[in-house]
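I have a small job for you when you get a moment. Can you supply me with one protein entry, sequence and fold together? It will help me judge whether the discrete encoding reads sensibly. Write everything out right here, beneath this request:
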Amino acid sequence: MDRLQKLNRYFLIVFAILMGLGAHYFQHNQGGSGLELAQNNVVWIFFSILIGLGLWKITDAQKIFYTRFTIVFLIAFLLFLIPIFYPNNFLAEQSYTRLLGLFAGFLLFVSLQQMRFNALYIQRLLLLVVLAGFLQACYSLMQDYLLPADNFFGYDVGYGRPYGIFQQPNVLASFMATTLILAGYLLQKIECRKTQVFLLVTAWLNMWVITVAVSRVGYLGSLLAVLFLIPWAWQQNKKRLAIFVVALFLGIGFGSMKGHDLLKARNIESMTQDSMRSRNMLQSFKMFTETPLFGKGYGSFEKEYLISYAKQVKENKLPPLTSHYAHPHNDTLFGLLKEELFL
């Protein structure tokens, strides 16, 4: 085995350790986002190694493999740098970590391309992601059903909604929806019976977690993903699709057995009524319409939102704020409509 092949193997091993162990690291913290959360630091350590392996392979092979999407990705990143030079970027340094994270994501994508994995290796990578979903599902169900009030993880059993390692139910539900649909996709591609059983169990547990997390984004994301998967899976193998759907209904059924506790965690009325979150997004969009070209400046959302909202309260158009907002709960609004540049 030559060195280039060894680099491929090392990449797969590091990715396996990340999905099997690193992504589930727990450490007590004060909350927050990004690198304020201990597990994110661990994940970025692994990402750094994966990027290093990709760059090492470029050096050894004296070639850079890329696609049209790689070029589009790079151009998009460069466009995100333009607003740094705008005159309203007084708080731009607060966005540097987001820009650095985006650039690191680009490097990770390029590094993955250098491995030139065949279809079998790509399946293995996706299986490892599904494995991470399986482990998080088990951890989340442990939170929701088994942990005592005074537990090592500091999980509030009275909260009523699991959040896994992510410390936020919506983020957990999004990840569960992602690995759920990956399990459905791989079920149509893989012939190994044992692996198929694992994928079905993962789909069942993922759907169970999505149900008890009572997350609107989880419900909507799962529904749309399954609806898009069904036409393709119907053409591939109807029997496997039927079993997959049965696993989903079993997950919903097991989750719904919480009954009153599930409704207490978050009732249907609270999920459908006009909430502060929708008001927050509408106000953010209004801010965009005020300065559609230059936005409000990198890193300025928190300050500008308070000023804009206060004006609406003064004019009796909105009720006073009851929560602190550092994000409009929508990345499109946050990135393109307001804090940055409308491209």
